[in-house]
Design brief:
By secondary structure, the chain is of the alpha/beta class. The chain has 2 domains: 183 residues, 3-Layer(aba) Sandwich (Rossmann fold); 113 residues, Phosphofructokinase domain (Rossmann fold, 3-Layer(aba) Sandwich). 42% of the residues lie in helices and 17% in strands. It has 11 helices and 11 strands. A 7-stranded mixed β-sheet has the order 3-2-1-4-5-10-11, with helices on both faces. A 4-stranded parallel β-sheet has the order 7-8-6-9, with helices on both faces. The radius of gyration is 22 Å and the shape is elongated. The protein starts with 6 loop residues before the first strand and ends with a helix. The model has no long low-confidence stretch (mean pLDDT 95). Bound molecules: 6-O-phosphono-beta-D-fructofuranose (F6P).
Length: 327
């Protein structure tokens, strides 16, 4: 154990993700196991700037492992984007004698942490917490598994009504920059087509596939549209398709923020627990400006600058599989 680390802080930032609480719990309990003082920072970077720190103990994180959202709350901070804002945050951390910080969040959170570390030298370990699963340096991010399971539960319900009415449904799922939720929920729910930011399917190509389905009298269909789809959102695509197939009875559903809430799955709880534990161990082992992840089921640390810069590809095998199975 590094003798320099005596007091640490933990916060959640960016979009909340189911499993963040399980991670906070693991961070606090691992820190207390090592007899560290630990503070929770409320409201992400915004709370860091304002000095919203409170001490946490084993009891503080009792009965939260199953809860969605984040007990530390979260925020997107404009002020932290400024040098002055980051200076205020550093002053607050110094006032509480914080030797290291654990940031649970996504790309935006880590981009801020990387700049902050370079300016102020306070050790940061990032834990990937976002439903988008779009971070390099980890096979899975906290919240992704719950989000896709929430999505397929909803899509299964839509399938019942789509089937009953012979309707064509366009269902939009979250994922601003990446199609992980769309691809996995699409395969898992047996969707007819999946439109991803990575594959850039045009409306014409989609119409061609739908046409083939219509010729073999496919009566209903479900098209999953990723939020980050480059050729339009679910409403735009539905409109364009309807122009060509006027006889199609189409409907659009945007699953929206239900994907971010709810009780985390066992996979997310265990992942969050492993990563929270590894974040504290990382700080004690002298890691700085690092993200902890799980790669091939092993805990791994990746430089924060690399994690935010490198793109995690979707995987051609899954894309190919989705096309074969939906044909
Ligand atoms: O990054 C997680 C995410 O849910 C994205 O998939 C989505 O684009 C974004 O957050 C929505 O953010 P907000 O809740 O601020 O609208």
């Amino acid at each position: 154990m590094s003798k320099d680390i005596k007091t640490i802080a933990v916060f959640t930032s960016g979009g909340d993700a189911p499993g963040m609480n399980a991670c906070v719990r693991a961070v606090v309990r691992t820190a207390r196991y090592h007899k560290l003082m630990i503070y929770g920072i409320k409201n992400g970077y915004e709370g860091m700037i304002k000095g919203e720190l409170e001490p946490l103990f084993n009891e503080s994180v009792a009965n939260i492992i199953h809860r969605g959202g984040t007990i530390l709350r979260t925020a997107r901070s404009e002020e932290f984007r400024t040098k002055e804002g980051r200076k205020k945050a550093a002053d607050q951390l110094h006032a509480y004698d914080i030797d290291g910080v654990i940031a649970i969040g996504g790309n935006g959170t880590f981009t801020g942490a990387n700049i902050f570390y370079k300016e102020h030298g306070i050790p940061f370990v990032g834990v990937p917490g976002t439903i988008d699963n779009d971070l390099f340096g980890t096979d899975y991010t906290i919240g992704f598994d719950t989000a896709v399971n929430t999505a397929i539960e909803a899509i299964d319900k839509i399938r019942d009504t789509a089937d009953s009415h012979n309707r064509l449904f366009f269902i939009e799922v979250m994922g601003r920059d990446a199609g992980y939720i769309a691809l996995n929920s699409g395969i898992g729910s047996g969707a007819g087509n999946i439109l991803l930011p990575e594959t850039n399917t045009t409306v014409e190509e989609l119409i061609e596939v739908l046409d083939k389905g219509a010729k073999r009298k496919k009566l209903f269909n479900i098209v999953i549209v990723a939020e980050g789809n480059k050729n339009g959102n679910a409403f735009d695509i539905a409109k364009a398709v309807n122009k060509k197939f006027k006889h199609y009875d189409t409907r659009v559903t945007n699953l929206g923020h239900i994907q971010r809430g709810g009780s985390p799955t066992c996979h997310d709880r265990v992942l969050a627990s492993r990563l929270g534990y590894a974040a504290v161990e990382g700080l004690l082992g002298g890691k700085e400006n690092t993200m902890v992840g799980v790669v091939n089921d092993k805990l791994e640390y990746t430089d924060l600058a690399v994690a935010i810069k490198k793109h995690k590809p979707l995987g051609d095998d899954l894309i190919k599989l989705s096309r074969i199975l939906s044909s």
